[in-house]
Amino acid sequence: MKIRKANKFDLPQLKQMLWNYHDSGNIKGLDITSEETGLRILSMILAGGGVALVSEKDNTLTGMLLAIRSPFLWDNTKTIMTEIAYWVEPEHRGSSAGYRLLKEYVEYCDELKDLNKISNYTISQMEGQELNYSRFGFKPIEHTWSI
């Protein structure tokens, strides 16, 4: 199992994993309005607007962590990295893929912080998950609710 940055050749598998991620959620009322939205977001990230990390085994992607860079709402002189999708295919859960994706994300973002390219970074957690991100140094800052 290896972790690496995604590239344009990964788009078909990334798009499929993004659909798997979407279909696993339980948010009602957020229907798909365009099948191309995911591809546009992935393209924006691959063009430098964030980071797309993938786990790979035998030339097959087993997981992904997608994050997007954006100005900080309260101080636009600062930029933050926000994770938008963290997914390991069900048949690869229990492997080291999830841990290694998150570890690489932290290392990558710490490097960007050291270079003053971002001021901080976030990770989210879907309802029902029991992941302890504090061991990576994260602290909870909010809990999002949806209707």
How are the SSEs placed, and which strands pair?
Layout: E1 2-5, H1 11-24, H2 37-49, E2 50-57, E3 60-72, E4 75-88, H3 97-114, E5 120-122
Parallel strand pairs: 4-5
Antiparallel strand pairs: 1-2, 2-3, 3-4
Helix pairs in contact: 1-2
Molecular structure report:
- It is a single chain.
- This protein has helices at 11-24, 37-49, 97-114, and strands at 2-5, 50-57, 60-72, 75-88, 120-122.
- It has 147 residues and is an alpha+beta fold.
- It has a 5-stranded mixed sheet with strand order 1-2-3-4-5, with helices on both faces.
- Strand 4, helix 3 and strand 5 form a beta-alpha-beta unit.
- Helix 1 packs across helix 2.
- The model has no long low-confidence stretch (mean pLDDT 86).
Key features?
29% strand, 5 strands, alpha+beta, five-stranded mixed beta sheet, 147 residues
Helix/sheet category: alpha+beta
User: Could you estimate the helical fraction of the residues in percent?
Assistant: 25-40%
Number of strands: 5
The overall average pLDDT, rounded, is 86
User: Order of strands side by side in the largest beta sheet?
Assistant: 1-2-3-4-5
Any low-confidence stretches, pLDDT <50, length ≥5? none
Biggest beta sheet summary = 5 strands, mixed
What global shape is seen? globular
- The radius of gyration computed from the alpha-carbon positions, rounded to a whole number of angstroms, is 15 Å
